[in-house]
Design a protein that fits this description.
Elements (H helix, E strand, L loop, with lengths): L3 H32 L4 H47 L3 H6 L13 E3 L5 E4 L12 E2 L2 H6 L3 E2 L13
Parallel strand pairs: 2-4
Antiparallel strand pairs: 1-2, 1-3
Helix pairs in contact: 1-2
Length: 160
């Protein structure tokens, strides 16, 4: 599925490549013209008519290519985000719920040394990490750690 924005980015890329090619051709023509002239006053017309515009077209082509690639990447991210948002869980559409349940439901609380959050034991952010240790109640009381936004643990959870 391609969006309209993806289709409008391709002409920018083509224009960038065309500007680069035209600029390169003009620079070569300017160089060839200058190389055949001995005196500087006879070289200036080649500089003014070929080399300077050729260099400007090369710069413009580079800018167009950079902008086109950034716009293409942004369009793809928007398309993926649209697909992600459009995919709702089956139970949400039927029951009319809008709030999602937390990903983890375990009562044991864990933290990673040096981290800033505390998690449930089955939280995907700490699951399988051997360095995760149980949270001390003093650390929770001091407010050094915040609750994980993914698994949404609470201080009242059992097992602390």
């Amino acid at each position: 599925m391609r969006t309209a924005r993806l289709r409008t980015v391709h002409p920018v890329l083509w224009a960038g490549w065309a500007a680069l090619a035209t600029g390169a051709v003009l620079c070569v023509i300017g160089w060839y013209g200058i190389s055949g002239e001995r005196y500087a006053e006879r070289q200036l017309p080649y500089l003014a008519s070929c080399t300077v515009p050729g260099a400007a077209l090369i710069i413009a082509g580079t800018v167009l290519l950079t902008h086109g690639r950034n716009a293409l990447a942004a369009a793809r991210v928007e398309e993926l985000y649209g697909l992600l948002v459009a995919a709702e869980p089956a139970g949400v559409a039927e029951s009319g719920q809008t709030a999602a349940a937390p990903l983890a439901a375990s009562g044991e609380l864990l933290m990673v040394p040096g981290g800033t959050l505390w998690h449930r034991a089955d939280c995907p952010l700490v699951a399988g990490k051997p360095e995760a240790v149980p949270v001390d109640s003093r650390v929770l009381a001091s407010g050094e750690l915040g609750p994980c936004p993914i698994c949404e643990p609470s201080v009242a959870d059992p097992g602390d």
